Amino acid sequence: MTDLSTTIADRTFSNCMMNAAGVRCADENDLNQLIASPAGAYVTKSATPNVREGNPEPRMKSLPGGCINSMGLPNHGLDYYLDFVLKDQAARPDKTNLLSIAGTTLEDNLAMLHKVADSDFNGFVELNLSCPNVPGKPQVGYDFDRVREILTQVFAFYDKPLGVKLPPYFDLVHFDQIAAVLNDFPLTFVNSINSVGNGLVIDPNAERVAIKPKGGFGGIGGTFIKPTALANVRGLSLRLKPEIAIIGTGGVMNGTDVFEHILCGASMVQVGTQFGFEGTRIFKRLSKELSAIMAAKGYQSIDDFKGKLKTFDD
Ligand code: RRO
Questions:
Q1: Ligand 1 atom with the shortest distance to the CA of 218
Q2: Is the dihedral of CA 270, 275, 276, 281 positive or negative?
Q3: In which pathway does it act (predicted)?
Q4: Is residue 309 part of a domain?
Q5: Ligand 1, atom 9, residue with closest C-alpha
Q6: Which domain covers residue 109, as residue numbers?
Q7: Alpha-carbon span 80 to 115, nearest angstrom
């Protein structure tokens, strides 16, 4: 039998697959479906301090094998998600889940983290530094000095497990620069990658952009972004200190994609776009597919191949 469990910090998850923040995790109904599924954990929709409507519609467009979105952080506000995770934690104290927060200012992030710090929450916070879709707010993850400033202020008081959700980087120098910042902090994990920001999808018949916000620019997910996601997981895995686990996200449609993320160094793999298409039954399919690959190769656990990607120089 293959074992799909994984460990991050001192927490064990029964399955190394889960949802990616933003997809089918914005309300209690969605989250309860994740709890009832074989996913090893769930992450809640990125929260702001107060309820947000998000951007005007149409703000998401499905494509063959992918999607573009400019949701603009629609969410029920931190209290809603904190209340949910606290109740779930009381009901299932042996499970660890992720609470995503995405303030549009540093002050909002600090205020939310103070609230979480003062609560009984003992799961992981995923601090989203990479939302591409709030008009006028650049993705913080591309400003390395700002990331350092934010993490300095966060870790001055926050001492529960915390990770960051990063945007994709496209130059090896940028991998070096972000890793140098991240390695200076007691992060539990980094999650790489968020959607590939500010792509443009066009309807050639209508001669018009596919979504309304920001003149049609939006975050790209799905099969097209897998090479970028794998490069980021691998690039960070080679540079981050071993105490920082990597959650791999991007372009996961099947068990082979999960296998590849783990080969690149991911301890956990999140599924966004394709989970949106299939719903929670995807976790059974991916588990079956990953198990079959592992069994064929004689691997019993994900540690047998995690981070063991070969190059032509090995
Ligand atoms: O809500 C969004 O528009 C959104 C967010 Br916060 C994010 O982090 N990534 C994304 O593709 N969309």
A1: 11
A2: negative
A3: Pyrimidine metabolism; UMP biosynthesis via de novo pathway
A4: no
A5: 131
A6: 4-54+71-194+221-302
A7: 13
Give dist(CA 256, CA 268) in Å, integer: 14
- Cβ partners under 8 Å of residue 181, min gap 6: 144, 147, 148, 151
Residue 268 zone, left/alpha/beta (φ > 0; ψ -120 to 50; rest): beta
- Kindly report, residue by residue over 90-130, the tens digit of the pLDDT: 999 999 999 999 999 999 999 999 999 999 999 999 999 99
Over residues 155-176, the mean pLDDT reads: 98
In the reported structure, the alpha carbon of residue 291 is separated from the centroid of ligand 1 by a whole-number distance in angstroms of 31
Length of the chain: 314
Q: How far is the CA of 128 from the centre of ligand 1 (A)?
A: 9
The answer, yes or no, to whether any atom of ligand 1 lies below 6 A from the CB of 131, is yes
Q: How many domains are contained in the chain?
A: 1
Catalytic residue positions, numbered: 131
Q: Residue whose CA is closest, atom 1 of ligand 1?
A: 73
Check whether 1 has a pLDDT greater than 90: no
